[in-house]
Structures are given as C-alpha cells and as structure tokens.
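Dear Dr. V.,

Thank you for agreeing to look over these. As mentioned in my earlier message, I'm a first-year student in the group and I'm still getting used to reading structure tokens, so any feedback on how I've presented them would be very welcome. I ran two proteins. I've put each sequence directly above its structure. The first is here:
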Amino acid sequence: MQVRTPVETNRAPHPEHEPYWSFLLRLWYSSLFRPVIRLNARFPWGLKEFSRLYAVAAVYYVIGSVVPIIVIFGSVILALHVAPENVLNLVATADGHPNMNVVLASTVTSFLCGFGAELYYIERQLKKEGLSLWKLIGFNLDSLNGSWTEAVKRAVVALGICLLLQNLLDVFPLPQPSQSTAELASTLDGGALFGFFFLAAVMAPFFEEIIFRGFIFNAFRNVFSEGRIFKILGQSKRMADYAAIGFSSLLFAGAHMEPTAFFQLFVVGVVLAELYRRSGTLVAPMLLHAFNNIVATLIIVLSGKA
C-alpha cells in the first residue's frame, strides 16, 4: 500500500510567491517598528562631563576658525603696504569685486582648522580614557561586513527619504530658506566652483558627521540610556535613541546658523542619525551627506547657468 507524506500547510511562502502587498507591508513594519540596529558605540561620559567637554570643544572650534581668518586678513593688510598694486590684483577683480578664489580658499582654511581643532580636542580626551575615536564611532565598514555596496545602497535609499521629507515641509507655512548661498554658488566658476564643491561634497560630510553623529549623537545616546533621564524615558533604549536623534539634530540645525532653513536641516539631521544608528557605520551617513550636498550643488549651479 502506498503511503502519502502529509503536506505541510503552515510553511512560510517562498519570497518569489509572496504577494507583493504582503512583502511591502512586512518591509514597512520591519523598517519602521523593528529595524536592525547595528550601532554599538558607548561613550564614557555622563551628562555633566559631556556638557563640559562639548563646551570646551566648541571653544576650540571657534578659535580654530577665527585664527586663520585673522592671519589671512592681517597678511593682506601688511602686504598692501609693501606691494599694494600686486595685492589688489590678487584679492580683487578688475571691477572691484572680491576674488572668489581667495574668498573660497579662506573659507576652506577656516572650516578645516575649526573642525580640525575641535576633533583634535575630542580625540585627545578619548585617548585619556584609553579609547580610539575612530573605532568607537564606527569609522569603518565592520558592521556591514566590509561591504561598500551595502553602505552606498543604504545612503541612496536614505537620500530619497531625505528629499521626500524636505519636499513635504513645503506643505507647511514655514519660512523659505535663504538663497544667499545659492546665489553665490551660481556665480562661481573655475577654481572657485571647485573649492565650493570640495567644501560641500567632501569636507562638510567628513567633519560634520564625525562631530554631530559620531560624537554628539553617541554622547547623547549614552547620557539618555542611564540614570534619571533613562527612567523618564520609560527605561526604553529605543526612546533613548530617539531622544538622542532629536537633540543632536537640533544642534546640527542650529550650528549652521541659517534660521530660515532650520526645519529642513533638522530633518536632514534626523535621517543622518537614523541611518547611522541602523547601519552601525559612520561611512553611510557621510555618503548620504555627500550625496545630498552634491545634488543641492548641482541644482544650484545648473539653475544658475540656465
């Protein structure tokens, strides 16, 4: 007699045969409510120590930004007494406008020295605790098994979300962002345009992600995950992470000193921090930051040329 093997009726459907709507629903639920959190950074400071350290780091940034400008302008003033005609030809155009190559070079130098000084101070403080800043903030691809492809894919998806959210803000009666930077960028060409692009697409993503996500977000994440604040948040690690995302994004938006673009910058900060939290590597938000700035710069330049 032939014996039939019973058919399993509760087996999970193969992905190829899973209804499309079911797949989207599962993807939405897993992404929104139960995402995989790969970030595993724990800073050694509480709220008091972090506040003091960040205040000192901010002073390092201000000093590092201002000193190069003072040196550059002081040098120009001294040089005017020696060879005024040559100096004027260097720093100004024939119609009397500032030479944008000199302006951009000064800006890049100030930016580099400011964030460099701040980063130097933070790294030195972590070394005192026997920690490496670069390992602590995940400045590698270990969480993604060394895959650049995975980092790029996550950054591209997050860029789409970021642009969508920024466009949704147009529905609300918010002040329109200032166009001064766009107007400036649309007039640049040659070396000045390259300098602006380098600042926006390389330097800003690198330094700002280290400071605002690598340091500030992680420090807030640690502060909100213990003590009285943790109890207020219901002793929930997820709520502690969300609070850290919110506060670090507020600082990120405020640090740009563009009040009319505050909400747009806050949204960008939230997406960058959440991408960092989920990917576990600072490379992913750096890529997103670079992609976002590249898109914005290309739009500005192309619209200006048109």
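The second protein is here, in the same arrangement:
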Amino acid sequence: MITRESRVAAAAAVRSFVTSVVTSVAVTSVAAMALVVGVGTAGVGVAGVGMVGGGLFAAGPAAAQSGPTAGPMADQSGPVAGQTAGQDRRQNEPGQFDFYVLALSWSPSYCEAAAERRVGRESEGRPDPQCGERPFSFVVHGLWPQYERGFPEYCQVPAPRLNREIVSGMLDLMPSPRLVFNQWDKHGICSGLGARGYFEAVRKARAVVKIPDAYLEPERTLLVTPDEVEEAFVKANPGLDREAVAVACNRNRLTEVRICLTRELGFRACPEVDRRACRRDRLSMPPVRGG
C-alpha cells in the first residue's frame, strides 16, 4: 500500500529533478549566447547565428561579416570615414599636388574609335572637329595634377567659366573646344593656377617634350610595342627616363603617351603611373589622316 508519506517523498523527488534540468538548460543557453557575443566582438564571424534585441535568430552568411576586419570595406583607410584606399589627405584642394602628367593622345586612334562608335548612329551629334580634314598626330589630351598615390579632380563644382579667347587659343594643341572645357573642369581647377595660368602651363609642358620623328606624320599604320614607343621618347628627350613615361592602349591601338613632370615642368619618375601602363605585346598606330 502506498502511504501518504511515500507520495510526498516521490513528489519532492520529481520537483528536484525538474529544477535541476531547467537550471542546466538555462546555464547552457547563457553560455551559448555569451560565446556568440564574445566571438562577434572579437571580429570573427559565426555563420548562421546572430543576436537581435537579446534573442537568438537564424542568419545568413552575411552575418558572419562582423568586426573591423570583415568585408571589402575593411581595406578603406584615411582620416575621413568612407575615403577610398590611399586617398591623399589633400584630396581635391586646388594647388595641392605633387607632380603633373602630360597626356599626349594619338589622334588617329581616337578618331578611328570614334568612327566605329558612330556606325549606325550617324545622325547623333556633331562630329568631333579633331577628326575633320586637318591631320593631327599627337595632340594634348591634358595636363593632370597628381599625388604620389591617386589624383585630384573636379576641385570646384561648378568650375569658373572659361574665356572663349582662351579656348580658341588652345585649339592648335587641343583641337576640340569640348576637350578644352572638359580638361579645365576636371583637371585645370586642381592646378590652382587660374585659367590663363593653367593653359600657359599646358603650352609650356608640351614644348618640353619632343615627339620622335617616326611619329610625326606616319603615312601607314605602324605596328609597335609599348617598350619601343617609350624608348623612342627617351632617345628623343635628353633627361627623360623610362620610369617617367608610360604608354596607354585601348584593345589593339596605342591611345596615349603619358609623361610625368615636376611642378616646374622637368622630367621625373612616377612609379604609380608606370604600373598602370599598357602591357600588350603589339599595338597599332593608325596613320595620320591625309598621309
């Protein structure tokens, strides 16, 4: 026979067992939450687990990106939040830069590419005056202020308006009014020189560089390597080193030769510009129109 005392003892045993189980589950849950919080704080992601308002929830792979080292934005550095990697502290302050790049565009390549883009769209816009009847070889694309890493651009928006007299006075070197306006807006303001001073610097910089004879008025398409072109410019310009000149290309055409100059317009090395140079084995230089 089950006595009253035995029933009381059995009930007490059951309560003790239930209490121990609940306590064990609670301790385990707290430990698991502490582990998630601790690992996340340390900057190491835990895939599939997250915390919202103190509760646990299922999360996707993106939840694993936590802490300062996770995700593609982690490489961005600089004194201002959101700066791109390596951005100069003087970014876009007019007159604050380290050197210039004189970009000389091979006009026949530009005009061939422009003609290809116009196929089937002849009625869209007016033709570029650079690509008219007058023959051009190397023309000035621009004189670009540079930092040792990176470059400024659009240092004042909107830019001060250009005097039409200045524009027309540059068409012998930069044979398109639109090109002159664009270079002033994007690069010229950053020189800190003012419009007249900047375009005088463009003219002086172009006078510093001698174009090799082979590239003055070629009558047929030239097949060249970037090394050959760089070496030709070095030989034609005493004091110019290979580290101060870089060739740019577009698909199979040579598009530009870029020469690095000090602020006083002397030749100087520019490793970052050289690293971005064209690496193709063989390039074409279309002939000068009318050649």
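From my reading of the second output: The radius of gyration is 33 Å. Confidence is low (pLDDT under 50) at residues 21-85. Does that match how you would interpret it?

Kind regards,
E.
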